[in-house]
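Support reply, case 0932

Customer input (verbatim):
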Amino acid sequence: MILEPIPPKILSVRHLPAAHRSVLESYGADLKRHVSLGLVTCDQDDPTYVALDEATKHAQVDVVFARSFYAGAKHGSGRLSGEILGVIAGADPDEVFEGLRALVRCLEHDACFYAADDKGEIAVFPHVITSLGHYLSAEAGLKPGQSMAYLVAPPLEGTIALDAALKAADVVAAKVFPPPSETNFATAWLHGDQPSCEAAAVAYAEAVVEVGRRPLYAKR
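Our regenerated output:
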């Protein structure tokens, strides 16, 4: 298989130790519990969602805002906009700073898209979260600590690959996001034990690569 890593590019990371009340409210923070904000932009949205979840496992923080930008990183509103803005919040500025550190570590060393063809024109995200934090677990309807395969690919490739992943492993669909997403991809969150999630991710990636190799397989 090809699957060369495409490292995410962190575009900005900033910390507001004592954010203004109106700023806290605008991003959905709880004024009774949140004082400090941490903000990040990146050119890959799905790895950033994983990294935001990772922050909740290493610091007393909540993800209060996370949203992809339409059409992807190449169409950002500015040099530092990227593909997503993520915001974490907490009562203790030091905890928010630690959350940002965990988030950056995840983006630098763990979560990334991969090239699924020789030209790097097809990208796939076959990521396994071995232990969910409280952000993505809530989003997926699962419990913190459970395993989840976080799978993303372009629309047709992702559909074929999702079918392959569900058939290849003892997993269930926690959530499926049909195409198009804001960035015109397809996403699925599959739940099972860790080995099953890993098997599903492998099958997903293999299917995306196969579609790239034979995109007109069904043509008569």
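We compared this against your earlier run and they match. Two observations from our side: The longest helix spans residues 194-213. Helices lie at 21-26, 45-58, 93-109, 134-140, 155-168, 194-213. Please reopen the case if you see a mismatch on your end.
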